[in-house]
Amino acid sequence: MPEENNKTCRLVSIVNQKGGVGKSTTAINISAYLANSGASILLVDLDPQGNATSGLGIYKKDIRNSVYDVIADHNRIAPEEAIFNTVYEGLDILPSSEKLSGAEVELVSAFKREYRLKKVLDKLKQYYDYILVDCSPALGLLTINALTATSEVIIPLQCEYFAFGGIASLLQAVELVRKNLNSGLEISGIVLTMYTKTKLSNQVVKEAKKYFSGRVFKTIVPRNVRLAEAPSFGKHIFAYDPECKGAKAYEKLTKEFIKNRNGDEKRINIEIENLSRRMKDFWDTGAPPKHAFGR
């Protein structure tokens, strides 16, 4: 763990309730680039699948304490005891474990259940420049804990059919947390992932920029085999293949994120209910993907 930090820590949740959208890849590689740039980083793996944990080369047999142990009622330990120093300088992780899958049920009856992670991060933020939380692919209590504990949200959105399917629900959840639990929560940006040079991907990019005006990162992350391979070697992309297109994209994205401090000044300009209704009307038609937009 780094020494106490006098700078303000940015706390960021990376959220999408749909799996397979590049959420953990985004969390790992933004964290890695920030650490490579000299910042002190804590990556919190709040996903029971533990992809961010294994993606940084940390495996079950190596984990003694996890994020579960610091938020669970029984056998709760000091947050510092669960921090795992990765092999990458400046990058620490609060790892996940299989036990985290039971936390949703355990937290239901817990006192101030939505604030468990916030209490942990409030103790740790003095040591870090950035804390990023890789959320589980669900809008359950773990994700609500992340949204309550952080001040910014990054939403990965894949450039594929059905991409907008759960966005309305996610934005509604963010708004509910902002109104009831965390008034300082803002959406930092939507990052388009898994882009390919197809008409469908281009149409998704167009629609995303239309609906989320001013809130889509300019950098688009391509579908890249090296990005997919890196976690299987327990490496982030800058350690695995720093010259590939995926690495270059995450370098540009992270630089854009560093400069993006307007979370307190702007909010997504979107009529959530209208978007949700439009998407539902389309899915009900059974039309093929090429007609998904522009109706």
In quaternary terms, these chains amount to: single chain
Name the poorly predicted regions: 262-272, 288-295
User: What's the CATH topology label?
Assistant: Rossmann fold
Sheet with the most strands: spatial strand order: 3-4-2-5-1-6-7
CATH homologous superfamily designation:
P-loop containing nucleotide triphosphate hydrolases
| CATH first level | Alpha Beta
Question: How many separate domains?
Answer: 1
The general outline is globular
In the CATH classification, which architecture applies?
3-Layer(aba) Sandwich
Mean pLDDT: 86
CA-to-CA gap between the ends?
53 Å
Fraction of residues in H or I helices: 25-40%
In total, how many beta strands? 7
Structural class: alpha/beta
The major pleated sheet works out as: 7 strands, mixed
Q: In angstroms, what is the radius of gyration?
A: 19 Å
Which strand-content bin applies to the residues? 5-15%
Per DSSP, the total helix count is: 12
* Element pattern in H and E: EHEHHEEHHEHEHEHHHHH
Structure description:
With 295 residues, the protein is α/β, with parallel strands linked by helices. The chain has one domain (10-269): Rossmann fold (3-Layer(aba) Sandwich), CATH 3.40.50. The protein has helices at residues 23-36, 51-55, 67-71, 103-107, 116-124, 141-149, 167-180, 199-211, 225-229, 237-240, 245-259, 272-285, and strands at 10-14, 41-46, 84-85, 91-94, 130-135, 152-158, 186-193. Strands 3-4-2-5-1-6-7 form a seven-stranded mixed sheet, with helices on both faces. The longest helix has 15 residues, at 245-259. The protein is globular, with a radius of gyration of 19 Å. The N and C termini lie far apart (53 Å).
